[in-house]
Amino acid sequence: MTFPSQDAIIQLTREGLAACGIDFDSLLTEQSAQSMPLPSPITGQILGHIAVDTPESAAEAVAKSQQAFRQWKDVPAPVRGKVVQRWGRLLEEHKDELAKLVTVEAGKTPSEAAGEVQEMIDICELAVGQSRQMYGKTMPSERPGHRLMETWHPLGVVGIITAFNFPVAPYAWNTALAIACGDTVIWKPSEASTLSALGANALLAQAAKEEGAPENLNLLLVGDRSVGEVLAEDERVALLSATGSVPMGRAVGPKVQQRFGRLLLELGGNNAAIVAPSADMDLSLRGAVFAAAGTAGQRCTTLRRLIVHADIVDELVGKIVDAYGTLSIGAPTENGVLVGPLIGKKAFDDMQSALEAAKAQGGEVLCGGGRVLADDAPDAYYVEPAVVKMPGQTEIVEAETFAPILYVMEYTDLDDAIELNNAVPQGLSSAIFTQDQAEAERFLAGSDTGIANVNIGTSGAEIGGAFGGTKETGGGRESGADSWQAYMRQATNTVNYSGELPLAQGVKFL
């Protein structure tokens, strides 16, 4: 395996940022208490350091965003949509360059990185359409000469916190709709994905300027947890959309709820797929391998539990183990690589701890789990995706480990399999592989996840459908035809044109 040099990765970074109008070298500063490292999981090395925001500067950004909102909310929605439309076109023009930044920071293969930028483009297209379709309702009034209706209005400042594994797409899911709805946005990206955030934000700022939008329509905060806490605690932030771990959600959720702010949380996923005896074996194999090993197991929709009928479990698991042996692992900048690095040492340590716990709870590691390429990249963490046969859904299986571990369990009764699917705290994505229509319908009716698929894996989603989950996943919904409503406030209006003043429910007063 050939690994890129530090200079080669920095050159990729320069190219990606330059396409977005940013000079990489001008961003860099000396290492200090007021700076933050710019890591790349490809080699594990630091590309440089960048100055960070403080809680004080974050609060100033909220004030600027609130001022911009006062102007933006009065702009007609179809006109607001033109900013989103222009952003989408800029993303198309610079798709490859922005994808380079995603590869550098998240370790995604070029195909996966380009796919993430394509999600940004897709949501822009959806949001432009929504800018002319923010429909309210008109309802019959029980009082003569009255009109009863519902209307939607811009909400305010929207704070967005995102995670490293999808460094730009969730930002666009929220931002494209929020801007079309008349809101302003402040983005606090993961500390591990600052560069791609700078690029995506700069392209939006360019679109906003070209279309004559107010200054400070979109702002970016660089920093650690303390900066994100400002967005959670500041009453001027009307909606906080946060993507990350369940502990992160537990930390920010009460802060927002205490001030009666709105929340949109996209948290953990511990996703399962059921494979029935009637399933197409080849389809199930390909669906499971990509969903479990793609992005080195670092998707919220990664397949982590495979529940296979006892009649076919040995055959299917044998094929999965064989397929894992063919996966190319290495630097995502190299041609043909399918599995890139873990984000860092903590992810590797968590994976090893989970494998040890699985073995202590009766599991058998059938393949993978070890570190590879340590001599080539001693500061990076590449691992072989693991398959672990479990006697049942033990404690470690019920916990989400953000690494490529696939736990395999068997079943004999479909109702029991669906119960296993539901018997975890998380509720993001699930799937069944079957050629039996009745089994498919029973699964769709019984699965308690926000996303439930038939004959396709748990990962990969289109922006036309609502994305989000239940239980500890948070309950939020991003993308999809109705998701714009999260970024607006709803009002019920009664118009009396009768010249009389009848009261509802037949109440008599004067």
Number of domains: 2
Outline the low-pLDDT stretches: none
| Number of separate helices | 16
CATH class descriptor of the largest domain: Alpha Beta
Distance between the termini: 87 Å
Mean pLDDT: 97
| Overall form | globular
Family: Belongs to the aldehyde dehydrogenase family.
Enzyme class: oxidoreductase
Domain Aldehyde dehydrogenase: 32-490
Keywords: NAD, Oxidoreductase
Features:
510 residues, alpha/beta, Aldehyde Dehydrogenase, Chain A, domain 1, Aldehyde Dehydrogenase, Chain A, domain 2, 2 domains, seven-stranded mixed sheet, five-stranded parallel sheet, 16 helices, 21 strands, globular
Blueprint (SSEs and pairs):
Blueprint: H1 6-19, H2 24-27, E1 35-39, E2 46-51, H3 55-72, H4 77-93, H5 95-106, H6 110-130, E3 137-139, E4 146-154, E5 157-161, H7 169-180, E6 184-188, H8 194-210, E7 218-220, H9 225-233, E8 237-243, H10 246-258, E9 262-266, E10 271-275, H11 281-293, E11 303-309, H12 313-324, H13 345-360, E12 364-367, E13 371-372, E14 382-383, E15 386-389, H14 395-398, E16 405-411, H15 414-422, E17 426-427, E18 429-433, H16 437-446, E19 451-454, E20 470-471, E21 488-496
Parallel strand pairs: 5-6, 5-8, 6-7, 8-9, 10-11, 10-18, 11-16, 15-16, 18-19
Antiparallel strand pairs: 1-2, 3-4, 4-21, 12-15, 13-14, 17-20
Helix pairs in contact: 1-5, 1-8, 3-9, 4-6, 4-7, 4-8, 5-6, 5-8, 6-7, 11-12, 15-16
